[in-house]
Please model this.
Amino acid sequence: MKLNKLYIFLAVILTSMSMTACFDDQGVDTIFDGGFVEFEDGRLPNGRTASFIRLTETQEDMVTLQLNRVSTVSTSPITINIEVDPASTAVSGVHYTLATQTVTIPAGEFVATLDVKVLTGNIDPSEAPDLMLLISSADGAEISSNYGDLTVAIRTICPSDLAGTYTVFYEYLQLGDEQGGASQSVTNFVIAAADEVEWEEASGAANYLIDDISFGMYPGLYNDAAPSGRISDSCNELTGDSANVDRFGDPFTISGVVNEDGTISLSWSNTYGDGGDVILTKK
Model:
């Protein structure tokens, strides 16, 4: 029996060696010796987003895009021509301008840049212009089939300065019945045990981290942990992040406005039935 196993083992080794010999040599023939050009941000799943806070009607900003040479050698320059895709919703002279649509990657280098001037003052925050660019030709290289195009989403937002500590006043408060309805409700009410919330600037322009998106209800009335969450400001229109949940996974819906006097009016609810209309006043 042991001898049979030895024969089988030797047969496996010989078969493996013969299969290996059938493959081509993976030496220098596999080294990439071509040249491609690409948009650096073409690798991003949704392209490049360029957001600016719109302060004046004459404001201009700059977006710098990087183009790459992908090759093992760089002894010759590469001249790259850029075109705007007709499907682009950004309008030249209205949303942006291009001083040039030709860039050159010099010999010995692997990177060049293209500047896009954004006419921020012309763009209302309600607009969503997309500048769609294509590498139309490249003298001295091929165009990357995957990253030869790029969408630049041009966005503007209004200034926002909402960070701070706020007192909370409930114009209407509702305790949930576990089914999305009300078990109890009250108007013109202050939760004395937890009547303040803190807004901190979060990542991304006009985004804020709120230390208690129940606005005093959870710690003050349920003696439970305050759920934190995020609220974004778009020209005084406030929206809660869709990912806002409490520790039970119950989602929160929040919307509101910044009033002319600087106070904040918010309406919030969860699927348990909790919620209310609150007025926040900065201290």
In short: The longest helix spans residues 2-22. DSSP finds two helices and 19 strands in the chain.
